[in-house]
Amino acid sequence: MRDHLPLVQHAVAEVASRVPRHVCRDDLESAAMLGLAQAARTYDPTRGIAFERHAGNRVRGAVLDALRDSDWASRSVRARARQMQRVADELAVRLGRTPSTSEVAAELGIEPGRVHKLVEDVHRATVLNYDSIVAEGDAEELLPADAETPDQVLLDRERLAYLADAVVALPERLRHVVTAYFFEERPMLKIAAELGVTESRVSQLRSEALVLLKEGLNAHLDPGTLPPVPRPGGRVARRKAAYYAAVAAGSDYRTRLDAAPPPLLRRARGPTGGRRASA
């Protein structure tokens, strides 16, 4: 560890240049030191990897893991960002394409400059940029060993189980698009041919599915973020309520927490079957 202490300073300097100024450098150094200690304990010379590379990845991973545990954006920034994202998602469904900044600003009733400012605020608060921070190393060596606590494991299991249930509960056409596009990574042209629609329609269906999935998850994991329903007793409200109920009924809490859920793709295919993506 003494011989490789410069790795700590290098990793901290590398990350510190990409995070807000108020991030405490001493905290980053402490996390980096823990990463170096973990690297010393887990290093296996028989794998043929130099200790400097192994330790470098562990140290950077420890710093990133420490940053992940903190949210550097204020609550107001996050709230405005959620509102902007919700409006952008609704516009994407309505327009069948990604809305422009001016269109989002008009929908929010604000100047485009304020939208740009909000995007910049969120970007400055986003400190986990793997493309720019992690220069090299295998994915398995990126994060510190034994980094997940038991409560984090349970939360991850619960979120993944809810996601699987939300995909399964989607209407058939939306489920087909989500499964084919995201899990099987098939091009939109082929998906459009299967459904007998245009590519732009597939894009619209994908946007609709993502909005519905997001709301289906938030309905159970973060109800306060759900957008208000214009007509609580209307047809749209009833359909969403039925979807939320279907997501809730997909699994019980023991199934979600006792073990990792079954492969998401297999569950998402539903009773209609279909080919599975390769492992």
What would a concise description of this structure say?
By secondary structure, the protein is mainly α. Helices cover 65% and strands 0% of the residues. It has 14 helices and no strands.
Rg estimate, integer Å: 22 Å
**DSSP strand tally:** 0
| Overall domain count | 3
Proportion of residues in extended strands: under 5%
Helix-strand string? HHHHHHHHHHHHHH
CATH class of the largest domain: Mainly Alpha
Helix content: 55-70%
CATH architecture of the largest domain: Up-down Bundle
The end-to-end distance, rounded to whole angstroms, is 38 Å
Topology-level CATH name of the largest domain: Butyryl-CoA Dehydrogenase, subunit A, domain 3
Give the number of helices: 14
- Average pLDDT score: 76
The biggest sheet amounts to: none
- Helix vs. strand class: mainly alpha
Low-pLDDT sequence parts: 126-146, 265-279
Gross morphology: globular
Topology:
Blueprint: H1 6-16, H2 25-42, H3 51-68, H4 75-95, H5 101-108, H6 112-125, H7 130-133, H8 150-168, H9 172-183, H10 188-195, H11 199-221, H12 235-249, H13 253-258, H14 264-268
Helix pairs in contact: 1-2, 1-3, 2-3, 4-5, 4-6, 4-11, 5-6, 8-11, 8-12, 9-11, 10-11, 11-12
